[in-house]
Amino acid sequence: MDKVVKAEMEKEFRQALPKARMMMTKNVLSKEDLNKLYGLFQQATQGNCNDWKIFGSMNLVDLDSKAKFNAWVANRGLSKHEAMQRYASEVNILATKYAVVFPTSRSQFGSASSFSTSTTPSVSDVVDSDTPAAVGGAGGDDAAGDDDSITSDTSLL
């Protein structure tokens, strides 16, 4: 895969992040949708989940943690760039599924109220101070500056 193709995949991935963040903020996504995005995000940013100690130390009663782990492991073997491409594609599929309309300018992504869906209540009805900032990462840019250093903060999920 050449550098131009990789750069385009990374660009699509970065453009999908605020869209996913907005859908999560509006509580549009189901648990299954969130877990799928989580698994793809982890594969795109961390690579294969090789630490089986995570699973061994996991509270098996905590079904959310187990589901996240399983979602990540389900993407084992995908390259980081393939996972980025699938993440961006899945965000677009989910936006269509839930009839989400995003703002046209990047500057409008700062406000959760700047997009609409035909099936969700207003922002004030669903957003509270405990809502995580992103699906799979912290708010703001997820790139640390260079092309190969996309980072994540999974403590938000």
From TrEMBL:
Residues 111-135 have a biased composition (Low complexity). GO terms for biological process: fatty acid metabolic process. PROSITE patterns: ACB_2. The keyword Mitochondrion does not apply. It comes from the Eukaryota. InterPro entries: Acyl-CoA-binding_protein, Acyl-CoA-binding_sf, FERM/acyl-CoA-bd_prot_sf. Residues 1-100 form the ACB domain. Residues 108-157 are annotated as: Disordered. One of its GO terms (molecular function) is fatty-acyl-CoA binding. This is Acyl-CoA-binding protein.
